[in-house]
Amino acid sequence: MIELQNDTLVFSFPEVHKDAVLRIAFQRTFRIPDDGKNYPLPPGFGNFPLRHVDDFAERIPQGWLERGGVMFPMYQSEALWIMFAHSDYPFALKVAAGKVNAVTGKGWEDGLNRRPQDYLVAPQQPWLDGFCVEKGVIRQFVAMPLGAGYSAEEQLTGAAEYGGLQIVAYPLKREAYERLPKADYRAYDYLAEPMPAKARFSMGLAPGGRMKQKIYDDEFKFEDWDQRYSSRCFIHTVNSLVWRSITGESPPTVPLTAKEYDQAGLPWFDLYDDDAGALEGGEALKGVKSVKELGEEKGDVPLPENESVEAANVKMLRHGLKKDQVREGKF
Q1: Distance (Å, whole) CA 246 – CA 240
Q2: Beta strands in the chain (DSSP E)
Q3: Residue 206 backbone dihedrals phi, psi, to 5 degrees
Q4: Of the given ranges (14-23, 146-155, 210-219, 290-299), which has the lowest mean pLDDT?
Q5: Looking at residue 258, what is its pLDDT?
Q6: pTM of the model
Q7: Contacts for 156 with CB less than 8 Å, ≥ 6 apart
């Protein structure tokens, strides 16, 4: 079952276990520079507003209605990260952008694959900021107009069909969960602050700047995942400039730039987990061009305000975070 609560997707599997609940939110953030450097984690500035697509049936593409799910607004070249929060119950999560797997770069497949691993494990994986391109490195999710050729979907499939994100969750089997020493799998405990042509209406996610982030190796036995049960959701991304015409609501304000944030002396983040295993980058994703790289080939300048920054103020985070140790910007 999937519910929408306070701009958060809540996945629950009461038929498996009463504790089998996972909350997923989509965090606003600034876009890190696309300059070849590996940056620390940027903060979260609160959840994007999520709305059911069915509530706006007369104002959205027919394909969105057929797929169902939720939607949220993004400005062109805006970034995001995905937060997996507030649950000790382990889940295997497949995350795709435009039906391109964010871990492997392969097209969407039902079910889980272990070799190579094509899923994340929450709560061990507290967040995902982009496409896994190397061991310990991702390229940030950056919104670009679907149809402009920048999205990972278009680069790898040659089509601009889906855009947005797709997520499916599989719970751990009850018996495997009840064997767990509960202290070993603590959640990251933090709080989030609370028409036109298709190419201009819909946003796809393209690979942006490089960021230090591990995609963790699954420490469970593969047979511990209960693949009899799953919940899947389409998350559609709408151009912020048309969000008001669809919903009647104002979109969020334009986010800070990395330079503005860094000049204010505000913190970046890093996760202390040197001993944790990490996946290699997806082979298909290693050849995908970043927005800046592709823009240079096109003779375009798709990323405004892309100046490099020092990221000197880095705050270390650890497993089992307290509520005052949050990955968010403070102003």
Answers
A1: 10
A2: 2-5, 8-12, 21-29, 38-39, 51-52, 70-74, 79-85, 91-97, 100-101, 120-122, 127-128, 130-134, 137-145, 165-171, 203-212, 231-239, 268-271, 314-317
A3: -110, 155
A4: 290-299
A5: 94
A6: 0.91
A7: 100, 105, 107, 284, 288
